[in-house]
Amino acid sequence: MQDFALQVDGLSKHFGSVVAVDGVSFTIARGATVALLGGNGAGKTTTLSMLLGLLLPSSGTIRVLGEDMVRHRYRVLPRLNFSSPYVDLPHRLSARENLTVYGHLYGVPHLKARVGELERALELSEFLDRPVGKLSAGQKTRVALAKALLNRPELLLLDEPTASLDPDTADWMRGYLRDYQRASGATILLASHNMTEVERMCDDVLVLKGGRLVDQGAPSALVGEYGRATLEEVFLDIARDRRAETMP
Q: How confident is the model at residue 164 (pLDDT cuts 50, 70, 90)?
């Protein structure tokens, strides 16, 4: 029997008369790296929010690392984490102070040593003691990732993990995440608009449109299925309704 990090069945979310997510079902095996793709309004943010326990589903079930997310949220939360360059850390605190505060919230043992490990691994030394509000966008992205790795999550959810990074640093970050995943066995679910990044990093792709799951598969399989040269061309086909079938 396959061991799943995520099992999502019939997941829906309504905001009044607006259906943000509509009957989405998928599974993600432990240790996989999977991309969640979709244009603006596709339902990615709402889906991620439900996976994190920030929003309750209108219907459907979510099992995270074998636990029901709605019923046993507090068993699950210590085992996962989330990073987004669009969620600000407190600006007046230094990067080190932010990591220390979040580390205490997460109950991280040997916190000072853990911050030191991440300082070296993510090359934070130059700006670790600066206020976050004075950091560049790329530096903030690296601090946000360090925050998400503090508790050594078994499931790591990432929103645009290389946003605001220059190409060289972005490539280094992708390599770091691959190494982390291989060393820890963690599962990674990332939302990204960078199709080249997805092709390089991900075992599987989930494509949302209008709140529904409209396609799924390995990047190379989707490229072949659509008869295209790149995943970006596949994404544009889906976004522009060149293929409108919906998965059963």
A: confident
What are the φ/ψ torsions at residue 210 (nearest 5 degrees)?
60, 30
Are 184 and 239 in a shared domain?
A: yes
Residues 4 and 119 in one domain: no
CA distance linking residue 226 with residue 228, whole number of Å: 5
Whether residue 72 is found in the same domain as residue 160: yes
CA 160 to chain centre: 8
105, 135, 152 - which closes a domain: 152
Residue 155: closest CA among 68, 52, 49: 52
Cβ atoms 63, 69 nearer than 8 A: yes
- Give the predicted TM-score (pTM) of the model: 0.91
Is residue 102 within a helix (H) or strand (E), and if so which, with residue range?
A: helix 95-106
Tracing tokens 């079938």 back to the chain, one arrives at 245
pLDDT tens for each residue of 113-126? 999 999 999 999 99
Q: How many whole angstroms separate alpha carbon 45 and alpha carbon 37?
A: 11
**Same domain for 118 and 69:** no
Render pLDDT for 188-242 as a digit per residue (tens, 0 to 9). 999 988 898 999 999 999 999 999 999 999 999 999 999 999 999 999 999 888 6
